[in-house]
Amino acid sequence: MTKWNRLKIKLLGIFIPDGPDGDRSRGKLYEPYLKAYGENFKVACQVLIYNPNGLSVGNHVYIGFNSYLGQGQITLKDEVLIGNFVSITASNHLKENNSYRFGGYDAKPVVINKGSWLGAHSCILAGVTIGESSLVAAGSVVTKSFKNNSTIAGIPAKLIHPK
């Protein structure tokens, strides 16, 4: 994505109203730049998709207010619900000469499977896969993958149901 396309999304986004109709309009604004997308992609206001070319989105996906989807390959399968202020980052900084500033990065794909919900203020880190129909509790930091129908919570996130 070029800096001009990023600027275009930001400028046009200013004129899109908040609420369900605006959410769909913002989704449509991103669609031409996504790796892949399905039907009814909705994006709340102030969302930042840093690397739309690395984002694949299924049907009926919603990204909540002020969420951040970072560098790397991110896949959101059908019916994924992302709460407000969620961070999904598919890469980690590397250390070089005792500094992370210029060490580059290591990308590992993130996959959020069908029907899962990422609660507000949760963080999903590089290399994580969340199973189908899973719930990530608000404020959790997910550092490893979890199976289908999991309820996970905490820092770092742990399985709390089913045990």
What does this protein structure show overall?
The chain contains two helices and 18 strands. The strands form four sheets. Strands 1-4-7-12-15-17-18 form a seven-stranded mixed beta sheet. It has a five-stranded parallel beta sheet with strand order 2-5-8-13-16, with no helix packed on it. A four-stranded parallel beta sheet has the order 3-6-11-14, with no helix packed on it. Helices cover 14% and strands 28% of the residues. The radius of gyration is 16 Å and the shape is globular. It starts with a helix and ends with a strand. By secondary structure, the chain is of the alpha/beta class.
Arrangement of strands in the largest sheet = 1-4-7-12-15-17-18
Cα Rg = 16 Å
Arithmetic mean pLDDT: 94
The global form is globular
Find the structural class using helix and strand composition: alpha/beta
Q: What topology does this entry show?
A:
Elements: H1 3-14, H2 20-30, E1 42-43, E2 48-49, E3 55-57, E4 62-63, E5 68-69, E6 74-76, E7 81-82, E8 87-88, E9 91-93, E10 105-107, E11 110-112, E12 117-118, E13 123-124, E14 129-130, E15 135-136, E16 141-142, E17 151-154, E18 157-161
Parallel strand pairs: 1-4, 2-5, 3-6, 4-7, 5-8, 6-11, 7-12, 8-13, 11-14, 12-15, 13-16, 15-17
Antiparallel strand pairs: 9-10, 17-18
